[in-house]
UniProtKB/TrEMBL annotation:
Compartments (UniProt record): Secreted, Extracellular space, Extracellular matrix
Lineage, uppermost ranks: Eukaryota, Metazoa, Chordata, Craniata, Vertebrata
Species: Geotrypetes seraphini
Record text on subunit structure and interactions: Binds to type I and type II collagen.
Function, in words: Affects the rate of fibrils formation. May have a primary role in collagen fibrillogenesis.
The gene coding this protein: FMOD
Gene3D superfamilies listed in its UniProt record: Ribonuclease Inhibitor
N-terminal signal peptide: 1-18
Protein name, entry field: Fibromodulin
Length: 353
């Protein structure tokens, strides 16, 4: 009996030793694999997928459709292999993009070219037209004086902020019916004509920090957010926001709005949730809808706290949904707030005066 027990114990011990060794080997080969991958990441031409990678770029084998060429003082666009979908060229000194730059990479989905020195006269007229899958184009912080021509209809996001754009011809964005975000801030845009009428899916339009003297018209009804701060706007047409049934966020700070410039009640529109009218020349609080939640009026010349701008009547259903109201930097004082204010502004968590 004793012998048998010992034999069984020994063989059990051997089995467990065996497993242990197997584990050790597995662990070693795992480490070797890790080192192998590490090598092929940094040394060119080890694996087939990095053979076609331009020397000045990185094409990680783990992400075979992406090519990273950003922040390395490039003056010219490198060749883009046909398998690429995402290419990153931002933060270089690239000044031109020839018509054939993406000739063999027609499957590109993202082209990132921001923070370069690309001028409109140095960008091919057809460079993007063959990219039928292009969804995002980043050209912000360049030297563009015109919107590039022949943009593909597949675009969803177009970034053109911090350039030298002035006038936008009415056909500049023709056919971009899938575009949801258009970033045009920090340019010198004065006249927008009917340029936005094509953009049937537009959700966000950023035109802040330009030279607009008139709010853009012909905006698509899909629009939810419009940023117009830091322009030269002094009036808002009566029905302006009523033509935008989905508008939720409106930024108009740092303009020249006066109460005379908004004679009717352009902001009394049910969809609006956030309205920024700070740093204008308002003397009275413009009437707003009871659905508004965030209202910024700091830095104006408001002299009275008119509760009628928020509630025409107060009862169980008629009260303001305002949560944050900023009135600091005006002429009114804390004791100008009428005593019945809490009945109307019953959801306000911050009233800053
Ligand atoms: C595209 O591919 C063709 C055929 O492989 C090649 O001849 C041509 O030079 C390539 N285009 C560019 C811009 O490199
Ligand atoms: C692009 O604009 C910057 C700043 O305005 C200027 O310094 C640079 O020379 C311009 N580059 C080209 C290629 O025109
Ligand atoms: C627009 O988006 C829809 C839905 O994703 C897609 O089916 C259609 O092909 C796109 N249009 C263009 C011109 O790419
Ligand atoms: C906003 O418009 C609605 C409906 O037209 C109206 O009943 C309400 O009194 C208006 N609100 C203000 C503050 O003028
Ligand atoms: C609440 O407001 C609505 C719309 O402004 C109005 O029709 C209704 O008469 C008001 N209710 C009361 C009790 O004043």
């Amino acid at each position: 009996m004793k012998w048998i027990l010992i034999l069984i114990t020994v063989s059990l011990w051997e089995i467990s030793q065996c497993q242990y060794e197997e584990d050790t080997l597995w662990w070693l080969s795992y480490m070797q694999n890790q080192f192998y991958n590490y090598d092929s990441f940094y040394e060119e031409d080890r694996t087939p997928s990095s053979q076609d990678c331009p020397l000045e770029c990185d094409c990680p084998p783990s992400f075979p459709t992406a090519m990273y060429c950003d922040s390395r003082n490039l003056k010219h666009l490198p060749y883009v292999p046909s398998r690429m979908k995402y290419v990153y060229f931002q933060n270089n000194q690239i000044s031109s993009v020839q018509d054939d730059a993406f000739e063999n990479a027609t499957g590109l989905m993202w082209v990132v070219l921001n923070d370069n020195q690309i001028g409109s006269e140095k960008i091919g007229g057809k460079v993007f037209s063959k990219l039928k899958n292009l969804e995002r184009l980043y050209l912000d912080s360049n030297n563009l004086s015109r919107v590039p021509s022949s943009l593909p209809r597949s675009l969803r996001e177009l970034h053109l902020s911090s350039n030298l754009l002035g006038r936008l011809p009415s056909n500049a964005l023709e056919g971009l019916e899938n575009l949801t975000a258009l970033h045009l801030h920090d340019n010198q845009i004065q006249d927008v004509g009917g340029v936005f009428k094509w953009l049937k899916s537009l959700v966000i339009l950023d035109l802040s920090n330009n030279n607009l003297r008139k709010v853009p018209d012909g905006l698509p009804t899909s629009l939810q957010q419009i940023y117009l701060e830091f322009n030269h706007l002094s009036t808002i047409p009566d029905e302006y926001f009523r033509a935008l049934p989905n508008i939720q966020y409106v930024r108009l700070s740092h303009n020249q709005l006066t109460n005379d410039g908004i004679p009717s009640n352009p902001f009394n529109t049910t969809s609006l949730l956030e309205l920024d009218l700070s740093y204008n020349n308002l003397q009275r609080i413009p009437p707003v809808n009871t659905n508004l939640e965030h209202f910024y009026l700091q830095g104006n010349q408001i002299t009275e706290f008119s509760i009628g701008s928020f509630c025409k009547s107060v009862d169980i259903i008629n009260f303001s949904r305002i949560q944050v109201l900023r009135l600091d930097g005006n002429i009114i004082q804390q004791n100008d707030i009428p005593p019945d204010t809490p009945l109307c502004l019953r959801q306000a968590s911050l009233i800053d005066i």
